[in-house]
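Minutes, project huddle
Topic: does the predicted pose make sense with D-mannonic acid bound?
PN asked that the exact inputs be recorded in the minutes so nobody has to dig through chat later. Recorded below.
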Amino acid sequence: MTAADINIECEPSRRPPSGIGIVHLGLGAFHRAHQAVYLQRHLDRTGADDWGICSANIRANRTLVDQLRDGDCRYHVAEFSDSEHVTLREVTALREALYAGPDGPDREALLARMSDPAVHIVTLTVTEKGYFLSPASGELLTDAPAIAHDIAHPESPDTAPGMLLEALARRRSAGVPPFTVLCCDNMPHNGRRTRRAVVSLARHRDGELAEWIDASVAFPSSMVDRIVPAMTDADRTRLAGLGIDDPAAVVCETFSQWVVEDDFPLGRPDWEADGVEMVADVAPFETMKLRLLNGAHSLLAYLGALAGIETVDAAVARPAFRGLLRHYWQQEAIPTLSLPAESDVAAYTDSLLARFANDSLRHRLQQIAMDGSQKLPQRWLAGGVERMTAGDEISATALGVAGWIRYTAGTDLNGQPHPVDDPMAETFATLHRRHGDDPAALTDAFLALDAVFPVAMRDDRLFSRQILAALARLENDGVESAIAALTLN
Ligand code: NAI
Ligand code: CS2
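Predicted holo structure (tokens), as shared on screen:
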């Protein structure tokens, strides 16, 4: 890569005073490469200082908070269009970084910041599991230890719903209007789900408070899209070679999209001028993205990992995997979408394959495979039930489920171990111990997980037979033969 291929969009000198109008929960890679970049665009365009961000972690990632504090909350984003072209951007939109975990010093500082009348918006990227909602039913998991803690100690919460609830309670007591809650996690109707988590938790505290929140607080939904892999040492070495020695830097693709329901009673940045699409209803955008992009990602994650493949680009370099994605899109996912007539879904899926093929991202399948119990309901299963109910077979989804079940055993098809990073990992391990030598019983036991699978899927004998047959093909013939058998049907 020559200097000519590197586009520097840093403005290290200009930094307006520290106006904080937004608090973010979940200071991770995606927040730094997505929401904060849009706020940086706003800052660069307007110089306005009232939409600076206080970003916080309430569990894990304390080191990152310290690193950002040491660097005046500045960091770099390296946007790779391919392995030869990168745009380096310095982000100064973060004004404060806090660690408010149970073992951290900043819980009260975070709650005070969230209660500040100048804060008008709270955004979140705490992962799908951070809301403590059943993936299948959407009910609050009140038996989760962290939620039980927040019910018992509402003034010193550990969870994202608990933080939102305590801050809203303080604002209500002080006569301060509530902030808008904008979820930026990969969930369908993510605003409604966040509302449900907070109001359900509030009902365990004070019924009137719960009603006030339900009536007074805006929880718009948003669809977010930018591929932001977890940073690796190889990434840091690569950035150092470009002159970026920044422990808080992130790497991502150039593509970025943010579609937001326009419901901000206390106001918002004029995001339209910064490339954000403000809409009345985000549902069509999010369903398409969750089922086409994320559904494909999860197929690659489990089946690619079983085949010993490490990254997304390496998987789509194989014709069998590209054929699987096209089969899944055309036969099973696209028919479930209600798209405007002018939509060019073929161009969209072509663009997904091009994005997945970006070998400069080195997007690890293991990262995508994480938290499958929280992801698969919206990525495969909701659409799958629709197709099943319509009498259509979903053999690609069945192959994906078989791949996921096999993946949760903790080894690939060559016996190489991998971590099973999922809130339900212990449950999966128990099912494999109990039924590992009986694939039919194992399949039924997984389908009986009502936190993950809809009842219609559990009871559908064709679907369970398809999963069983796919499991056998995976073990006996390998992944690419199992895919070939699928597309030959
Ligand atoms: P990350 O691992 O870098 O950051 C996740 C953050 O969530 C961490 O700061 C962690 O402290 C926090 N967290 C994890 N579990 C939590 C819990 N139970 N309660 C509270 N906080 C918790 O991951 P990254 O890449 O930032 O992704 C985060 C979320 O952003 C994803 O789960 C997804 O919903 C969304 N997203 C990610 C994209 C990506 O390509 N990385 C793209 C689109 C959406
Ligand atoms: C990925 C997503 O890790 C995963 O589950 O499928 O983070 C994906 O990179 C983003 O949704 C892309 O916008």
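Observations noted during the meeting:
- The two ends are 45 Å apart (CA to CA).
- DSSP finds 21 helices and twelve strands in the chain.
No decisions taken; revisit at the next huddle.
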